[in-house]
TrEMBL record:
GO-annotated biological processes: malate metabolic process; tricarboxylic acid cycle
Its EC number(s): 1.1.1.37
Residue span(s) of domain Lactate/malate dehydrogenase N-terminal: 6-150
Residues involved in substrate binding: R95, R101, N134, R165
Membership in a protein family: Belongs to the LDH/MDH superfamily. MDH type 2 family.
Enzyme class: oxidoreductase
CDD domains documented for this protein: MDH_chloroplast-like
Record key words, sorted: NAD, Oxidoreductase, Tricarboxylic acid cycle
Taxonomic superkingdom: Bacteria
Gene, per the UniProt record: mdh
Record's protein name: Malate dehydrogenase
Length: 328
Protein backbone atom coordinates (compact mmCIF):
# COMPACT_ATOMS: atom_id res chain seq x y z
CA UNK A 1 0.00 0.00 0.00
CA UNK A 2 1.35 3.45 -0.84
CA UNK A 3 2.20 5.86 1.97
CA UNK A 4 -0.06 8.74 2.99
CA UNK A 5 1.25 12.07 1.60
CA UNK A 6 3.03 14.39 4.02
CA UNK A 7 2.80 18.17 3.89
CA UNK A 8 5.98 20.14 3.20
CA UNK A 9 5.87 23.93 3.51
CA UNK A 10 8.60 25.99 1.85
CA UNK A 11 8.89 29.75 2.25
CA UNK A 12 10.68 31.98 -0.24
CA UNK A 13 9.60 29.33 -2.74
CA UNK A 14 10.18 31.53 -5.81
CA UNK A 15 13.70 32.52 -4.78
CA UNK A 16 16.92 30.97 -5.99
CA UNK A 17 17.26 28.38 -3.21
CA UNK A 18 13.59 27.52 -3.72
CA UNK A 19 14.28 26.85 -7.39
CA UNK A 20 17.10 24.45 -6.49
CA UNK A 21 15.09 22.79 -3.72
CA UNK A 22 11.49 22.15 -4.75
CA UNK A 23 12.19 19.80 -7.65
CA UNK A 24 14.36 17.61 -5.46
CA UNK A 25 11.75 17.45 -2.69
CA UNK A 26 9.10 16.55 -5.26
CA UNK A 27 11.29 13.82 -6.76
CA UNK A 28 11.68 12.09 -3.38
CA UNK A 29 15.28 13.00 -2.61
CA UNK A 30 14.40 14.49 0.77
CA UNK A 31 11.88 12.10 2.30
CA UNK A 32 12.37 8.95 0.27
CA UNK A 33 11.35 7.56 -3.09
CA UNK A 34 8.21 6.03 -1.57
CA UNK A 35 6.93 9.14 0.22
CA UNK A 36 4.32 11.28 -1.59
CA UNK A 37 4.44 14.99 -0.71
CA UNK A 38 2.08 17.95 -0.85
CA UNK A 39 3.98 21.22 -1.33
CA UNK A 40 2.60 24.27 0.50
CA UNK A 41 4.52 27.19 -0.98
CA UNK A 42 4.73 30.60 0.63
CA UNK A 43 5.83 33.80 -1.08
CA UNK A 44 5.43 37.47 -0.32
CA UNK A 45 1.94 38.86 -0.94
CA UNK A 46 3.14 40.96 -3.84
CA UNK A 47 2.23 40.35 -7.48
CA UNK A 48 5.78 39.90 -8.73
CA UNK A 49 6.60 37.20 -6.15
CA UNK A 50 3.28 35.40 -6.59
CA UNK A 51 3.64 35.50 -10.39
CA UNK A 52 7.16 34.03 -10.14
CA UNK A 53 5.79 31.32 -7.85
CA UNK A 54 3.09 30.48 -10.41
CA UNK A 55 5.87 29.97 -12.96
CA UNK A 56 7.77 27.61 -10.66
CA UNK A 57 4.57 25.64 -10.04
CA UNK A 58 3.97 25.32 -13.78
CA UNK A 59 7.44 23.79 -14.07
CA UNK A 60 6.80 21.44 -11.16
CA UNK A 61 3.62 20.34 -12.90
CA UNK A 62 5.53 19.78 -16.13
CA UNK A 63 7.90 17.37 -14.38
CA UNK A 64 4.95 15.01 -13.74
CA UNK A 65 6.60 13.79 -10.53
CA UNK A 66 4.83 10.61 -9.39
CA UNK A 67 5.37 11.58 -5.72
CA UNK A 68 3.92 15.10 -6.01
CA UNK A 69 0.47 14.56 -4.55
CA UNK A 70 -0.51 18.23 -4.57
CA UNK A 71 0.76 21.79 -4.38
CA UNK A 72 -0.59 25.09 -3.19
CA UNK A 73 0.51 28.72 -3.47
CA UNK A 74 0.15 30.90 -0.38
CA UNK A 75 0.80 34.49 0.65
CA UNK A 76 -0.08 34.02 4.34
CA UNK A 77 1.85 31.76 6.75
CA UNK A 78 -1.40 30.91 8.55
CA UNK A 79 -2.63 29.01 5.48
CA UNK A 80 0.79 27.93 4.19
CA UNK A 81 1.65 26.10 7.44
CA UNK A 82 -1.74 24.43 7.96
CA UNK A 83 -1.13 20.86 9.18
CA UNK A 84 2.39 20.93 7.78
CA UNK A 85 4.71 18.08 8.77
CA UNK A 86 7.90 19.75 7.52
CA UNK A 87 8.64 23.47 7.16
CA UNK A 88 11.68 24.83 5.34
CA UNK A 89 11.91 28.52 6.15
CA UNK A 90 14.07 29.87 3.34
CA UNK A 91 12.57 33.30 2.63
CA UNK A 92 14.19 36.11 4.60
CA UNK A 93 14.92 39.76 4.27
CA UNK A 94 18.32 40.20 2.59
CA UNK A 95 20.69 42.90 3.76
CA UNK A 96 20.09 46.02 1.64
CA UNK A 97 22.44 48.95 0.94
CA UNK A 98 23.22 50.92 4.09
CA UNK A 99 21.48 48.37 6.29
CA UNK A 100 23.23 47.62 9.58
CA UNK A 101 23.25 44.13 11.08
CA UNK A 102 20.82 45.34 13.76
CA UNK A 103 18.37 46.48 11.03
CA UNK A 104 18.68 43.09 9.37
CA UNK A 105 18.03 41.32 12.66
CA UNK A 106 14.98 43.50 13.34
CA UNK A 107 13.50 43.02 9.85
CA UNK A 108 13.93 39.26 10.11
CA UNK A 109 12.66 39.20 13.68
CA UNK A 110 9.31 40.43 12.35
CA UNK A 111 9.15 37.73 9.68
CA UNK A 112 10.18 34.88 11.97
CA UNK A 113 7.95 36.00 14.85
CA UNK A 114 4.95 35.89 12.51
CA UNK A 115 6.00 32.55 11.03
CA UNK A 116 6.69 31.03 14.46
CA UNK A 117 3.25 32.12 15.65
CA UNK A 118 1.63 30.66 12.55
CA UNK A 119 3.45 27.34 13.01
CA UNK A 120 2.35 27.37 16.65
CA UNK A 121 -1.26 27.88 15.63
CA UNK A 122 -1.73 25.59 12.64
CA UNK A 123 1.18 23.20 11.97
CA UNK A 124 1.32 19.53 12.90
CA UNK A 125 2.42 19.17 16.56
CA UNK A 126 5.36 17.11 15.31
CA UNK A 127 6.41 19.57 12.60
CA UNK A 128 10.11 19.53 11.75
CA UNK A 129 11.24 23.09 11.07
CA UNK A 130 14.50 23.97 9.32
CA UNK A 131 15.48 27.64 9.11
CA UNK A 132 17.73 28.47 6.15
CA UNK A 133 17.11 32.22 5.81
CA UNK A 134 19.88 34.27 7.38
CA UNK A 135 20.80 34.94 10.13
CA UNK A 136 19.65 31.33 10.30
CA UNK A 137 20.43 30.48 13.95
CA UNK A 138 18.82 33.61 15.34
CA UNK A 139 15.85 33.39 12.99
CA UNK A 140 15.30 29.83 14.20
CA UNK A 141 15.59 31.01 17.80
CA UNK A 142 12.96 33.71 17.16
CA UNK A 143 10.57 31.25 15.48
CA UNK A 144 11.02 28.77 18.36
CA UNK A 145 10.35 31.46 20.99
CA UNK A 146 7.23 32.53 19.07
CA UNK A 147 5.82 28.99 19.17
CA UNK A 148 5.37 28.15 22.87
CA UNK A 149 2.97 25.25 22.20
CA UNK A 150 5.50 23.38 20.07
CA UNK A 151 8.53 21.60 21.50
CA UNK A 152 11.76 23.64 21.19
CA UNK A 153 13.32 20.61 19.51
CA UNK A 154 10.92 21.02 16.57
CA UNK A 155 13.06 24.00 15.48
CA UNK A 156 16.48 23.73 13.87
CA UNK A 157 18.87 25.96 11.91
CA UNK A 158 20.99 25.02 8.93
CA UNK A 159 24.68 24.34 9.66
CA UNK A 160 24.83 21.50 7.14
CA UNK A 161 26.27 23.65 4.40
CA UNK A 162 29.23 24.44 6.68
CA UNK A 163 29.53 20.73 7.51
CA UNK A 164 29.52 19.73 3.84
CA UNK A 165 32.00 22.48 2.99
CA UNK A 166 34.33 21.26 5.75
CA UNK A 167 34.07 17.65 4.52
CA UNK A 168 34.96 18.69 0.97
CA UNK A 169 38.00 20.69 2.10
CA UNK A 170 39.28 17.71 4.13
CA UNK A 171 38.68 15.37 1.19
CA UNK A 172 40.65 17.68 -1.11
CA UNK A 173 43.49 18.02 1.40
CA UNK A 174 43.83 14.27 2.01
CA UNK A 175 43.01 13.08 -1.51
CA UNK A 176 40.26 10.80 -0.19
CA UNK A 177 36.56 10.72 -1.10
CA UNK A 178 34.11 12.67 1.11
CA UNK A 179 32.24 9.43 1.74
CA UNK A 180 35.28 8.14 3.68
CA UNK A 181 34.99 10.96 6.28
CA UNK A 182 33.13 10.28 9.53
CA UNK A 183 32.63 12.14 12.82
CA UNK A 184 33.03 15.69 11.62
CA UNK A 185 31.47 18.47 13.72
CA UNK A 186 30.71 22.17 13.19
CA UNK A 187 30.02 24.19 16.32
CA UNK A 188 28.05 27.40 16.67
CA UNK A 189 26.66 30.01 14.33
CA UNK A 190 26.17 29.79 10.57
CA UNK A 191 28.59 32.66 10.05
CA UNK A 192 32.34 33.08 9.63
CA UNK A 193 32.70 32.43 13.40
CA UNK A 194 31.54 28.79 13.05
CA UNK A 195 34.10 26.27 14.28
CA UNK A 196 34.59 23.31 11.95
CA UNK A 197 36.25 20.67 14.11
CA UNK A 198 37.96 17.57 12.67
CA UNK A 199 39.67 16.45 15.91
CA UNK A 200 37.37 13.42 16.19
CA UNK A 201 37.00 12.82 12.46
CA UNK A 202 38.25 9.71 10.72
CA UNK A 203 38.99 9.11 7.08
CA UNK A 204 38.95 5.47 6.01
CA UNK A 205 39.18 4.75 9.73
CA UNK A 206 42.37 6.80 10.29
CA UNK A 207 42.43 10.00 12.36
CA UNK A 208 41.99 13.10 10.14
CA UNK A 209 43.93 15.20 12.63
CA UNK A 210 46.91 12.83 12.55
CA UNK A 211 46.70 12.35 8.78
CA UNK A 212 46.78 16.11 8.13
CA UNK A 213 49.01 16.85 11.13
CA UNK A 214 49.18 20.58 10.39
CA UNK A 215 47.64 22.99 12.93
CA UNK A 216 48.81 25.95 10.83
CA UNK A 217 46.74 24.66 7.88
CA UNK A 218 43.80 24.15 10.25
CA UNK A 219 43.95 27.71 11.58
CA UNK A 220 45.15 29.65 8.56
CA UNK A 221 43.60 27.80 5.63
CA UNK A 222 40.85 25.36 6.61
CA UNK A 223 38.85 27.44 9.10
CA UNK A 224 38.94 30.69 7.06
CA UNK A 225 38.09 28.82 3.84
CA UNK A 226 35.03 27.15 5.35
CA UNK A 227 34.00 30.24 7.35
CA UNK A 228 34.24 32.65 4.43
CA UNK A 229 32.99 30.30 1.74
CA UNK A 230 29.60 32.03 1.50
CA UNK A 231 31.27 35.39 0.87
CA UNK A 232 33.66 33.82 -1.68
CA UNK A 233 30.68 32.45 -3.61
CA UNK A 234 28.88 35.80 -3.52
CA UNK A 235 32.07 37.48 -4.81
CA UNK A 236 32.39 34.96 -7.64
CA UNK A 237 28.74 34.49 -8.63
CA UNK A 238 27.32 37.89 -7.75
CA UNK A 239 24.57 36.15 -5.75
CA UNK A 240 24.70 33.86 -2.75
CA UNK A 241 25.04 30.10 -2.86
CA UNK A 242 21.79 28.45 -3.88
CA UNK A 243 22.28 24.92 -5.21
CA UNK A 244 24.68 23.97 -2.43
CA UNK A 245 22.38 25.57 0.16
CA UNK A 246 19.38 23.66 -1.21
CA UNK A 247 21.45 20.47 -1.21
CA UNK A 248 22.37 21.01 2.43
CA UNK A 249 18.70 21.60 3.30
CA UNK A 250 17.80 18.28 1.64
CA UNK A 251 20.61 16.52 3.54
CA UNK A 252 19.51 18.06 6.87
CA UNK A 253 15.84 17.12 6.53
CA UNK A 254 16.52 13.68 5.05
CA UNK A 255 18.85 12.74 7.89
CA UNK A 256 16.49 14.13 10.55
CA UNK A 257 13.50 12.27 9.09
CA UNK A 258 15.14 9.04 7.96
CA UNK A 259 18.11 8.73 10.34
CA UNK A 260 21.90 8.71 10.06
CA UNK A 261 22.66 5.06 10.99
CA UNK A 262 24.85 6.25 13.83
CA UNK A 263 26.86 8.69 11.67
CA UNK A 264 27.41 12.23 12.92
CA UNK A 265 25.99 15.22 11.07
CA UNK A 266 25.80 18.87 12.13
CA UNK A 267 22.49 20.56 12.97
CA UNK A 268 21.76 23.89 14.61
CA UNK A 269 19.53 22.92 17.54
CA UNK A 270 18.41 24.53 20.79
CA UNK A 271 20.91 23.82 23.56
CA UNK A 272 19.87 22.07 26.75
CA UNK A 273 23.10 23.19 28.36
CA UNK A 274 25.36 20.74 26.49
CA UNK A 275 29.02 21.84 26.42
CA UNK A 276 28.14 24.85 28.58
CA UNK A 277 26.06 26.48 25.84
CA UNK A 278 23.21 28.37 27.55
CA UNK A 279 19.78 26.78 27.28
CA UNK A 280 17.82 27.54 24.12
CA UNK A 281 20.71 29.11 22.20
CA UNK A 282 20.38 27.72 18.67
CA UNK A 283 23.84 26.23 18.26
CA UNK A 284 25.56 23.99 15.74
CA UNK A 285 26.32 20.63 17.40
CA UNK A 286 27.33 17.20 16.17
CA UNK A 287 24.21 15.02 16.28
CA UNK A 288 23.02 11.58 15.30
CA UNK A 289 19.44 11.00 14.14
CA UNK A 290 17.16 7.99 14.56
CA UNK A 291 13.38 7.49 14.52
CA UNK A 292 12.75 11.11 13.53
CA UNK A 293 14.70 12.51 16.50
CA UNK A 294 18.14 14.07 16.71
CA UNK A 295 20.50 13.53 19.63
CA UNK A 296 23.47 15.75 20.44
CA UNK A 297 26.75 13.81 20.63
CA UNK A 298 27.82 14.44 24.22
CA UNK A 299 30.97 14.06 26.26
CA UNK A 300 33.52 15.09 23.64
CA UNK A 301 36.69 16.59 25.13
CA UNK A 302 37.11 20.28 24.30
CA UNK A 303 40.72 21.50 24.24
CA UNK A 304 41.87 25.08 24.79
CA UNK A 305 41.90 26.08 21.11
CA UNK A 306 38.46 24.57 20.51
CA UNK A 307 37.05 26.21 23.62
CA UNK A 308 38.26 29.62 22.41
CA UNK A 309 36.63 29.02 19.01
CA UNK A 310 33.37 27.89 20.64
CA UNK A 311 33.40 30.90 22.99
CA UNK A 312 33.79 33.26 20.03
CA UNK A 313 30.90 31.87 17.99
CA UNK A 314 28.76 31.66 21.15
CA UNK A 315 29.48 35.31 21.97
CA UNK A 316 28.24 36.27 18.50
CA UNK A 317 25.04 34.26 18.96
CA UNK A 318 24.40 35.73 22.41
CA UNK A 319 24.86 39.20 20.89
CA UNK A 320 22.30 38.40 18.18
CA UNK A 321 19.90 36.94 20.73
CA UNK A 322 20.20 39.99 22.98
CA UNK A 323 19.68 42.22 19.94
CA UNK A 324 16.24 40.74 19.24
CA UNK A 325 15.09 39.91 22.78
CA UNK A 326 12.99 43.09 23.07
CA UNK A 327 11.14 42.16 19.85
CA UNK A 328 10.00 38.74 21.08
P1 LIG B 1 16.31 34.98 -2.86
O1 LIG B 1 16.29 36.45 -2.62
O2 LIG B 1 16.62 34.46 -4.23
O3 LIG B 1 14.90 34.37 -2.46
C1 LIG B 1 14.26 34.67 -1.28
C2 LIG B 1 12.77 34.59 -1.56
O4 LIG B 1 12.11 34.74 -0.32
C3 LIG B 1 12.26 35.69 -2.48
O5 LIG B 1 11.53 35.11 -3.54
C4 LIG B 1 11.37 36.54 -1.57
O6 LIG B 1 10.25 37.07 -2.27
C5 LIG B 1 10.95 35.53 -0.52
N1 LIG B 1 10.59 36.08 0.78
C6 LIG B 1 11.16 37.09 1.45
N2 LIG B 1 10.54 37.31 2.60
C7 LIG B 1 9.55 36.39 2.68
C8 LIG B 1 8.55 36.13 3.64
N3 LIG B 1 8.43 36.85 4.74
N4 LIG B 1 7.70 35.10 3.39
C9 LIG B 1 7.81 34.37 2.28
N5 LIG B 1 8.72 34.60 1.31
C10 LIG B 1 9.58 35.59 1.52
O7 LIG B 1 17.29 34.38 -1.77
P2 LIG B 1 17.93 32.92 -1.72
O8 LIG B 1 19.21 32.93 -2.44
O9 LIG B 1 16.90 31.91 -2.07
O10 LIG B 1 18.33 32.85 -0.16
C11 LIG B 1 17.33 32.80 0.84
C12 LIG B 1 17.95 32.95 2.23
O11 LIG B 1 18.80 31.87 2.51
C13 LIG B 1 18.80 34.21 2.40
O12 LIG B 1 18.52 34.73 3.69
C14 LIG B 1 20.21 33.67 2.34
O13 LIG B 1 21.12 34.53 3.03
C15 LIG B 1 20.02 32.36 3.07
N6 LIG B 1 21.08 31.36 2.91
C16 LIG B 1 21.34 30.58 4.00
C17 LIG B 1 22.31 29.60 3.92
C18 LIG B 1 22.59 28.70 5.11
O14 LIG B 1 23.53 27.89 5.01
N7 LIG B 1 21.89 28.77 6.23
C19 LIG B 1 23.01 29.41 2.72
C20 LIG B 1 22.70 30.20 1.63
C21 LIG B 1 21.73 31.18 1.73
C1 LIG C 1 26.34 30.95 2.62
O1 LIG C 1 26.90 30.46 3.61
O2 LIG C 1 26.62 30.62 1.46
C2 LIG C 1 25.30 32.02 2.84
O3 LIG C 1 24.82 31.98 4.15
C3 LIG C 1 25.87 33.35 2.48
C4 LIG C 1 24.87 34.47 2.56
O4 LIG C 1 25.23 35.51 3.17
O5 LIG C 1 23.76 34.36 2.00
Amino acid sequence: MSKKPVRVAVTGAAGQIGYALLFRIASGEMLGKDQPVILQLLELPIEKAQEALRGVMMELEDCAFPLLAGMEAHSDPMTAFKDTDYALLVGARPRGPGMERADLLAANAQIFTAQGKALNAVASRDVKVLVVGNPANTNAYIAMKSAPDLKPGNFTAMLRLDHNRAASQIAAKTGKPVSAIKKLAVWGNHSPTMYADYRFATIDGASVKETINDQVWNQDVFLPTVGKRGAAIIAARGVSSAASAANAAIDHMRDWALGTNGEWVTMGVPSNGEYGIPKDVMFGFPVTCANGEYKIVEGLPIDEFSQACIDKTLAELIGERDGVQHLL
